[in-house]
Amino acid sequence: MSEVLLKEILNELKGVKTELVSLNRRVGKLEEGQARLEEAQSRLEGNQQKLEVKIENEVIDKIRALFDDREMQNHRLDRIEVKLENVIVDLGYLVTKVARMERMA
Which intervals of the chain form a coiled coil (predicted)? Predict the structure, then answer.
């Protein structure tokens, strides 16, 4: 082989080596980015679990309390309606009685 050909091969190999070094750097950066993404995902999963626990412990209890309160209010309203119906019946009776007394007088 001629010396010129060997120099060309050597130059080509140097270029390939340079590109390989560059690719290695880029792969290293990609691996670092991947590690950061995995850490961020891990933190998000932890935060999600905390939120789920908070929802289960706090929000569901509050919803139950609101439902129980609504049931109590419905029960109170039912009792008030019964009393109102009794008052209406009594009022009807009294109006009738007063009307009879007025006719007698």
Answer: 6-57
Dig out the tokens for 47 from the structure. 């935060």
- Six-digit token pair at 44? 């998000």
Half-sphere exposure of residue 100: CA atoms within 13 angstroms, side-chain side: 6
Question: What is the C-alpha separation between 90 and 82, in angstroms, rounded?
Answer: 12
In a structure prediction context, what are the per-residue pLDDT tens digits for the chain, which is 105 residues long?
A: 689 889 999 999 999 999 999 999 999 999 999 999 999 999 999 999 999 998 888 888 899 999 999 999 999 999 999 999 999 999 999 999 999 998 987
In whole angstroms, how far apart are CA 58 and each of 51, 63, 65, 67, 71? 10, 9, 11, 14, 20
What is the three-class DSSP state of 1? coil
Q: In angstroms, rounded to a whole number, what is the distance separating the alpha carbons of residues 38 and 43?
A: 9
Residue 31 CA to residue 39 CA, distance in Å, equals 12
Q: What is the DSSP letter of 33?
A: H
Q: Is the dihedral of CA 51, 57, 58, 60 positive or negative?
A: positive
